[in-house]
Amino acid sequence: MSAEPSPQSPWQAATITRIEKRTPRVTSFWFQPSRPFAHLAGQHVDIRLTAPDGYQARRSYSIASAPEAGGGVELAIERLDDGEVSPFFHDVAAVGDEIELRGPLGGHFIWEEGDGGPILLVGGGSGVVPLMAMVRHRTLRNKAVPVALVFSVRIWDEVIFRDELIGLDDRRDGFDLVLTLTREPARRPSDYSRRVDARMMAQAVERLPKAPKLTYLCGSNAFVSAAADALIGVGVPSEIIRTERYGV
Amino acid sequence: MVTRGFFSGRRPPSDTDARIPPGQYLEQGFPVLSAGPTPRVRTEDWSFTLKQGPKPIKKWNWAEFNALPQSKMTRDIHCVTAWTKFNTPWQGVMIDDILADAGIEPPTAYTLALSFDGYSTNVPTKDLVTGKAMVALLYEGKPITPDHGGPARLLVPHLYFWKSAKWVNGLQFTERDEPGFWELRGYHMYGDPWREQRYSSDL
Fold it and tell me: Do B3 and A241 touch (CB under 8 A)?
């Protein structure tokens, strides 16, 4: 008997293998897909939750882990109080649960080793997540690419991946971390205590050995718009600026 | 597969259920998404060009374009990032009226919408004509803001909203269905929200 091969569903079950709180509002979840895949730094997956009556909710989450990192796919999920999917992850999801996942997705907001650099990354809040995948990819694959990351959060305790980022910064191997706290004084000499602006962007560009080849901005629409305008204002060509916005 | 412990969700009220395509949720705000910085296009620099392949058919400046017959469309819109917004009110020039002013019938079955920032997206020509689509100039009676695609954006409300190109500056008729910006990057060639045609692997 020969059966027509049915087209494989793009959705697959992925098992939560590890959960780690990153900040008061952001928790990382590691997923082991039943059909493992190779992703690119900056890509996202779609997550689909299904209620017993068939109702489904889906959202996109950026991948935080580097493509070459073992141990599954890390998503760092921010709790949105009026959200539908993120409160489920924060309040209900547990290690061993199976979640439906689809991906990897996205072909624009990505950085591969071969794209070269220098690269300038500007993230606001959980907008740092896809940038973290790029930083980790660069660390594991090609430290020759200079990278500056400007990471804006409200307070020190909301700096996602803080220990890891400061550890990478301390290596002085071409990765430069700039934190800007919008509601607290700066903690480190190189950091700021204000919203991103043109002077901060000009200084970030100057931290790189030469002009950036690519610039990636991710965060809320207001944050990304402000950062993009500031970069264009200091002469960064709009053609090399890639953006990803939460929408709101 | 039922997700353990997922019950409540943000179910739409039953009277609006039928208006929300599969996998979408109802959004009250108007989220902004784009692949790059927001271009600030001044209306004195604005133009709109109708092309067949590389050959221009007709070009309008802002004043000429605004003098074309304008229509209103109030429609539900559906973004591929899963939000749906009801009753968005637009005003602009129907594609039918642009073609009539150029004095042509649609010359090919496929169209690429082109934008000031280099963005493009493909739409079958039949999805642009017979009252289905417009080049929108006003949203809620006011000029469209730059982050929502102003001065002018394409409005093809029955397809996922990435097809409604922001900062549109032309339509190019093509012999074949040529993928645009997102269609080259994994998104669906057609993008029907009711068939959930989000990504290229969707049927």
Answer: no
CA distances from B108 to A173, B58, B105 (A): 55, 16, 9
Residue B102 neighbours by CB distance under 10 Å: 13
In-domain check, residue A76: yes
The pLDDT profile of chain B, 203 residues, written as one tens digit per residue, is 899 999 865 677 777 788 999 989 999 999 999 999 999 999 999 999 999 999 999 999 999 999 999 999 999 999 999 999 999 999 999 999 999 999 999 999 999 999 999 999 999 999 999 999 999 999 999 999 999 999 999 999 999 999 999 999 999 999 999 999 999 999 999 999 999 999 999 98
Q: What is the pLDDT of residues A2-33, one digit of tens each?
A: 444 456 789 999 999 999 999 999 999 999 99
Q: How many CB pairs under 8 A join A and B?
A: 106
- One-letter amino acid for residue B149 of the chain: G
For residue range A176-225, list pLDDT tens digits in order.
999 999 999 999 999 999 999 999 999 999 999 999 999 999 999 999 99
Q: Is A8 on the interface with B (CB under 8 A)?
A: no
Residue A48 forms contact with B (CB below 8 Å): yes
Phi, psi (5° rounding) for residue A207?
A: -70, -20
Number of structural domains in chain A: 2
Residues A53 and A171 reside in one and the same domain: no
| One-letter identity of residue A178 | V
User: Residue B183: closest CA among chain A residues belongs to which residue?
Assistant: A107
Are both A131 and A216 inside the same structural domain?
yes
- Preferred mutation among B1, B4, B6 to probe A, highest tally of A CBs within 10 A: B6
Domain at B46-195, CATH class? alpha beta
Give the one of B33, B37, B82 whose C-beta lies nearest to A58's C-beta.
B82
Structural domain range at position A85: 11-105
Rounded to whole angstroms, the Cα distance separating A97 from B4 reads 7
Indicate the residue of B3, B8, B199 with minimum beta-carbon distance to A105.
Answer: B199
Mutate to test the interface with B, among A45, A50, A234 (most CBs of B within 10 A): A50
* Residue A207, min C-alpha distance to chain B (Å): 22
A104 cis-preceded (ω within 30 degrees of 0): yes
A148 and A170 part of one domain:
yes
State the angle between helix axes of A221-233 and A198-207 in degrees (0 to 180), rounded to the nearest 10.
70
